Amino acid sequence: MPKIPVVSENAPKAVGPYTQGIRAGDFLFISGQVAFNPETGKLVEGDITAQTHQTLKNIRAIVEAAGGTMDNIVKVNVYLTNIDEFKPFNETYAQYFGKTPPARCTVEVSRLIPGAVVEIEAIARFKS
Predict the structure, then answer these.
(1) What per-residue string of b and e applies to 75-103 under the rule 16 or more CB within 10 Å gives b?
(2) 85: which of 43, 48, 110, 122 fits an S-S bond (Cβ 3.0–4.6 Å)?
(3) How far apart are CA 57 and CA 35, in angstroms?
(4) Tens digits of per-residue pLDDT, 18-43?
(5) Residue 97 to residue 94: CA distance in whole angstroms
(6) How far apart are the C-alpha atoms of 38 and 114, rounded to whole Å?
(7) Any idea what the Cα angle at residue 64 is, between residues 107 and 30, rounded to 5°?
């Protein structure tokens, strides 16, 4: 099965040896995204809410570049630097998914890239 790179100009450019997304068969694997503004390349300023919005906008841009929507996302992994921010994170996150949100794992981590308070990776499924 070939690995097809998926890249969106509306999401931050990769800053290392990885691809924004890889399509393999019916699945799209989206690399971990943080709150980089794709226009400036800088981390957005603000709290967990602002960073969650930007992170999910980046994920949406990548899934749309593959021809899908947020409804195609079936699994996400969320990394928070402060689990006490779970409630405002969750309120923001819920705005991006419909009646059937994806399966999810949320964990607290000690550090992300400097200034980032949330990172999200996702898997989307497309019909053959």
Answers:
(1) ebebbbbeeebeeebeebbeebeeeeebe
(2) 48
(3) 9
(4) 999 999 999 999 999 999 999 999 99
(5) 6
(6) 17
(7) 35
Look-up of token digits 């009646």: 99
Q: Which residue has the tokens 């992994």?
A: 77
Torsion angle in degrees (nearest 10) through CA of 43, 44, 50, 53: -70
CATH topology of domain 4-125: 60s Ribosomal Protein L30; Chain: A; (3.30.1330)
pLDDT at 128 over 80: no
Q: Are 49 and 7 in contact (CB under 8 A)?
A: no
Closest to 32 measured CA to CA, from 3, 12, 50: 12
Residue recorded with tokens 């689990």: 83
